[in-house]
Amino acid sequence: MHSMFPASFSLLGDYVPEFASFPESASTFAERNDSVYWYITWICVAFFIPIGYCLFYFAWKYHKPKGAPAESQVSHNTPLELAWSILPSILLIWMFYAGARGFLDQRVPPDGGYELKVEAQKWSWLVDYGRGTYHPELHILLDEPTRLTMTSKDVIHSLYVPAFRAKKDIVPGRYNYMWFEPTIASEKVSDEELKQAKAWNKGNPAWDYDHHQFTPEGYRFFDLYCAEYCGKDHSMMQTQVVVHKTQEDLDAWIKEKSTRGEVPMEEWGQRLYQQRGCKGCHSIDGSSGTGPTWKDSYGAARDLTDGRSAAVDENYVRESILNPKAKIAKGFQPVMPSYKGQLSDDDIDSLIAFMKTLSKNYKPEPDKRSAAEEQKGAVEQKAAEDNSTATESGGEN
Amino acid sequence: MATTEASSETAHEDHGHDHDHPAFLAHHFDTPEQQFDSGKLGIWLFLVTEVLFFSGMFCAYAMFRALRPDVFEGCSQFLNTKLGAINTGVLLFSSLTMAWAVRCAQTEDHKTLTGMLAATLSCAMVFLGVKAIEYSHKWGMGLLPAGLFFYDPNNQHPTAEQLELIGFGSFGVSFLQNALFYICAPFAIGLIGVVIWLVVSLVNGRKFQVAVAKPLTVVFVFFFVGVGLGRILESGESHDSHDSHAVAHVDGHDAHQAGDHASDQHAGDAHAADSHSTDPPAGDHDSHGSPVEDGGELAVLERLAAEKTNTGLQDDLAARQRQSAVASGAIVHSDEITSTIETVPEEVLTPSRAGVFFSIYYCMTGVHAIHIIGGIIVLIWLLVRSVRQDFNRQYFGPVDYVGLYWHLVDLIWIYLFPLLYLIR
Amino acid sequence: MSSGSLPPGMKIRDPGFPTQRENYLTNSKGVLSWMFTLDHKRIGVMYLIGISVAFAVAGFLALGIRWHLFLPDGMLFRNPQTGNDTYNQVFTLHGAIMVFLFIIPSVPAALGNFLVPIMLGAKDVAFPRLNLCSFYLWVFGAVFFICALCASGLDTGWTFYTPYSTTTNSSVILATSGAFVLGFSSIFTGLNFIVTINTMRPPGMTWFRMPLFLWATYSTSIIQVLATPVLGITLLLLIAERVMHIGIFDPEFNGDPVTFQHFFWFYSHPAVYIMILPAFGIISDLVSVHSHKHIFGYRFIAYSSLAIALLSFIVWGHHMFTSGMSPLTTIIFSALTFSVSIPSAIKVFNWLATMYKGSISLTTPMCYTITFIFLFTIGGLTGLHLGTLATDMHLHDTYFVVAHFHYVMVGGTVVAFLGGLFHWWPKMFGKMYSEFGGRLSCLLVFLGFNLTFLPQFVLGSRGMPRRYATYDPEFAYLHQMSTWGATLLGIGLIVAFVVLMRSLIRGKPAPANPWGGATLEWHCTSPPPYYNFERPPLVGDPYDFHDLRWDEENERYVTIEPEREIVPREIPDEVTVQANKDH
Fold first, then answer.
1. CB-side exposure of A257: number of CA atoms within 13 Å?
2. Residue of B7, B34, B362 with shortest CB distance to C28
3. For helices C435-462 and C399-408, what crossing angle results, to 10°?
4. B352 reaches A (C-beta below 8 A)
5. How far apart are CA B236 and CA B257, in angstroms?
6. Contacts of residue B11 in chain C, CB cutoff 8 Å?
């Protein structure tokens, strides 16, 4: 619909169409909302032009030297005033109706469809794809209604995808829901382009989305913003929405993200630390939190509430993650939830590897595996291309 | 201020105004009636803003009550209905004296006016004294707003070290443990000051000052009357609760809270809460002392089962548990002994539940108390003016306006009392 | 028509010029005579100075925001650790100072204090001491804000949303205390005006003979008295939440942050009308006086002011359409929101009809009036996009909202305030300013303003969220346009300031009635005597211009009246400085 009025929202529109037009309309809401938007805009223009014209025309036409009496001193005309009070109301009723219809569509998700959990925190997004797979990017399926269940860990955020014309606040302490159905799939850039970008990116730990305008896997994306002010890096709280064409494509992507793959253990452990809630209670700089700090904890001895003490080793950490109430460190409350079934063995090993890097109490043993891991962390990704790490390390521990 | 007022007055003279402006009529008004009407409209508007000011808190109350009725029913057990009722009575009486004062101002009965104002002030002081008792006991036990809430039914009077462990500074600890002293201190200083003033002006023979200081001394003494009254009512109550079921539900109270829990004490032995600071810290309950346990009922049962001296308690407990289950955790029958703080499900006693109740309680009663204090200050100003015989048939506006304000403050308490203390 | 061609049997009435003793500016001297004055005019002038300083500070902060946004990664606050924080503090303080210290007191407290009693024909407001008290509360509130600024700044946005405001490290308590105190300042002003208008009207001043500015002020005062206490308690609860975590707004203790939003907007939406209603009043007066034509539809305008005041209390939810209220609530709020747009539209039509067949003098105030109608119409119309639920889902919290409320607040209130200031400046200070300078400032403001905020509508439609310290490069072009516009707008405001300041030094003495207004303030000398009116003035239709004549010689308007001798005295054949004494 809105293509009928290309970029004519403002005077500027004619000169800078690429800046002045709406973002791509990529959801089922977009077309309807945009048409409502343009109808209202044209109604506004239809009102504004006569008003503006009268304003300046009267100012010019009835501009008289001082002292000249006005041509008329009419003070009121009730029928006329009633008319211009009541007639515009009809248009308002239409606007209200159209808006409310569109809104109800947005509020009431259809049955079925694709369900995802979204966690927002200062200043990052995390999408829960189920089965322990988390990733900051939002990957969804074309023409499939997607329902997001959103929670916030700290302050109010708001999930906003301009291309979908959808927005919803995420209020801590409650679940908020939103849904949309994407209608345009993200294209994939050519392999050369991706290779080029990877080469450009080399040595740079973070992928520069703004620069490349596609994800590290080569997908074009839609921007996802945080629209509710949430502090220092509010403007950095962005992520990407990728719309996959087929279920297989999406599943493949999720599968790829669900295992560690070729990422070094320490780095994966660090990522889990940040993404899976460890960060909330355990510091890595020695400061005390709800739980004991991880700094220098690995390899040290720890007093327990029942008077015994235990050495913090692989077994202790593993038990603490899977059965947190078994051994409670002195001075802390037994409040940690169990991660049984939520972290794979490989995940736990990665966390342990990450803890090792934080501890000066840990002396790397001349063990073959850990030496290899050490090296892997130190050198770059390429050093250890062995994709067997996952099973291997699981077996050893 | 003086310069401009003076100059405007002289200016009026210059212009030969023929208004006969009495001293009490401000220069910009034409007649005393106009001045009175303006003041009256002004004070009514001010009262409207006051009502709206409180309405925010009433909204918060309504919302949280609707969300968690069990918390409100459980926690209101901690409020002492007797003290609340006394305060209600005191305020109602002060409304009477205030209305009487307005009448006296209109009839130019200066002596009675001063007396009535002093009576109103004394009632306000009694109210504050009783409030001081109520507040100080709750503070000592940790029944505080959510963020500071540390009430533990097994250890209601934590020692200084325990408080420091919770995270209070040394001043905070001393404040919490001697809250009554800190609250009374400013009033004591005020009393001493007024007495000194009275003595000095008596010695110097300043009649006016004596006439002001005398009623004020009485007024300040009444604060301590209020404190005494509160203490007597409170300690008397713990005995009552043992005798009759009818009063047991109203006590909700610290005075004997330890009685049923601590195995070495019987309810009948309970004293005023202050004397309890030597309660055993109940360390043996620590293992299940965590307030965040899921099965609150179970915890209650478990905890009370440890009280082996109480025979037949098990049956009682089972009955209570059934009752609680039926009422989904709410205590509905206020005329049974079950409806005391012991039956407040332990899961309610967490900062995020009981704490929020007490947040609302302190916000509402605290802001109300601030209004009482504001009223006291204005009433003292009226008292001075009444001794000076400022008011007459044509000019009694200030007494009238303050009267309206005072009635509103009373009215708000009339709402607070049932909402917080009575509805269960 | 000059004074020479007087119709037979008529005489000229003109109060002439005040003596030094009568002039409220000079009748008593010294700083103390100002600081402790109870004269509503002096309090108005002190307010004017105060809010101008606040406006300047917040204006420079606005320029800081705009120039920072000149580049996608930020241009001014580039420190990687603290840059974004600095930006957040700058936009927060810009908003908070503009709203609490400038716009809310601008028209009601500064112009209102000066004008309400004079327009009404009273000697002063009902409670002069309360009036002075409310000024000092304003100062006190401003001091709190300065303390907050000096302590650790404020980075919550002017809305203080929880739980951000309960967890951030900046000085929220100081700032909210400041806003709390300012709230009381505002309540007292409103209370004073309601009582003044109700009880201080002289004989003959019926409700429907009141100038529309008074109707607007009355409506505004109702909002101030009814809405501000709720803000007070909300801020108090917020402070309590920060100090001791009372758990009402804090999700950590089962509180609900959305409750805070309801409380906050219950005040702050009506507050929007505290800002704009007095502006409507000013424009209604200005458009009639400078068109020399009776205002069209007096009663409709008066009633629509009241209607807006009352409707404003039931539309607050439209700030929270995306916050997850129940669909029914949301839809009801949307419907109510549309209803409030009707009274605003009525006013625009009435103003245009007033200009129709008038005798328009394109003076500076009239130029500002035309600017106002133009900009406010845009601001009002774009509100429709935001009131419509479906489009609001997209536009909420984007630059579209920013542009919309700036069109209403700046294009509306600030422009009307400037118009009113230029209109009543001769009355307030007894000096005429340079018409050329005034019109130039108006032109610059008009151009600069549109250049600043039209691109922001586009930005918002494109999906640029507000309160972003950095942004995606595709938005850069529009942001740069906006920045240049802001600079131009700033220049326009500085020109206006210079013109007014220069008039104080070099300006010609102003006649009692330079524009041809028929309301009572023009019956006083310029500046008015400190007692306003010696006797209750004769009150007629405030928009009846029949007996006003232009006196070419003295560049003034005079009132002609039939030669009716009530008191047999000699007729002054020429108006002298002593004119007043003959009353």
1. 23
2. B7
3. 160
4. no
5. 14
6. 21, 27, 530-531
The model's pTM is: 0.81
C451 contacts C408 by C-beta, under 8 angstroms? no
Q: Which of C384, C447, C479, C481 to mutate to test the interface with A (most CBs of A within 10 A)?
A: C384
Is pLDDT above 50 for C321?
yes
Q: What is the DSSP letter of C37?
A: -
Q: Where does B15-109 have alpha helices with state H?
A: 32-67, 69-75, 81-107
Order of all β-strands in the sheet with A222-226: A138-141, A238-244, A222-226, A157-161, A166-170
Q: Which of A167-181, B137-151, C83-97, C308-322 has the lowest mean pLDDT?
A: B137-151
Which of B3, B12, B146 is the closest to C246 by Cβ?
A: B146
Beta bridge partners of A241: A138, A222
- The percent of residues in chain B predicted with pLDDT above 70, rounded, is 68
Contact yes or no for C359 and A69 at CB 8 A: yes
Return the SS3 of A328.
coil
pLDDT at A366: 55
Measure the CA–CA gap between A138 and A125, rounded to whole angstroms: 9
- Residue A176 parent element (H or E): strand A176-180
**Residue of chain C with shortest Cα separation from A92:** C338
CB C111 within 8 A of CB C420: yes
pLDDT tens digit sequence for A363-372? 766 554 444 4
Considering just the CA atoms, what is the radius of gyration of chain B in Å? 26
Quick one: which of A94, B333, A66 has its CA closest to C554? Answer: A66
DSSP conformation class of A310: E
Asked if C578 is an interface residue toward chain A (Cβ–Cβ < 8 A), one would say no
**Scanning the structure block, which residue is given the tokens 């001010």?**
B46
State both tokens at B187. 């009033």
* Residue C150 touches chain A, beta carbons under 8 Å: no
Classify A27 as helix, strand or coil: strand
User: Residue C446: which pLDDT band, with cuts at 50, 70 and 90?
Assistant: very high
Residue B301 pLDDT exceeds 70: no
Residues A65-116 pLDDT 10s: 888 888 888 888 889 989 988 888 888 999 999 999 989 988 888 887 888 9
- Contact present, A163 and A23 (Cβ < 8 Å): yes
Instruction: Please tell me the distance from the alpha carbon of residue B74 to that of residue B342, in angstroms, as a whole number.
Output: 10
Task: Identify the CA nearest to C7 among candidates C517, C542, C563, C514.
Answer: C563
> How many Å apart are CA C194 and CA C207, to the nearest integer?
13
Global ipTM: 0.89
Length reported for chain C: 583
Per-residue pLDDT tens digits for A188-230: 888 888 888 777 766 655 677 777 778 878 888 888 999 999 8
- What is the spatial distance between Cα C537 and Cα C519, in angstroms, rounded to a whole number? 11
- In terms of Cα–Cα distance, which of B363, B365, B372, B366 is closest to B402? B372
| Angle between helix C40-68 and helix C415-429 axes, rounded to 10 deg | 140
Chain A nearest C-alpha distance from C447 (Å): 14
Determine the Cα–Cα distance for residues C349 and A82; give it in Å rounded to an integer. Answer: 11
Confidence label for B400 from pLDDT (cuts 50, 70 and 90): very high
Residue B258 pLDDT > 80 = no
φ, ψ dihedrals at A167, nearest 5°: -155, 140
Looking up tokens 């507050």, which residue turns up? Answer: C271
Any idea which residue has 């610059």 for tokens?
C444
CA distances from A372 to A36, A245, C379 (A): 61, 40, 66
Answer for the pair C128, B32: CB distance below 8 angstroms, yes or no: no
| Distance separating alpha carbons of residues C24 and C525, to the nearest angstrom | 10
Residue B371 to chain C, least CA–CA distance (Å): 13
The two three-digit tokens of residue C563, written as one number: 């030669």
- What is the pLDDT, as a whole number, of residue B92? 94
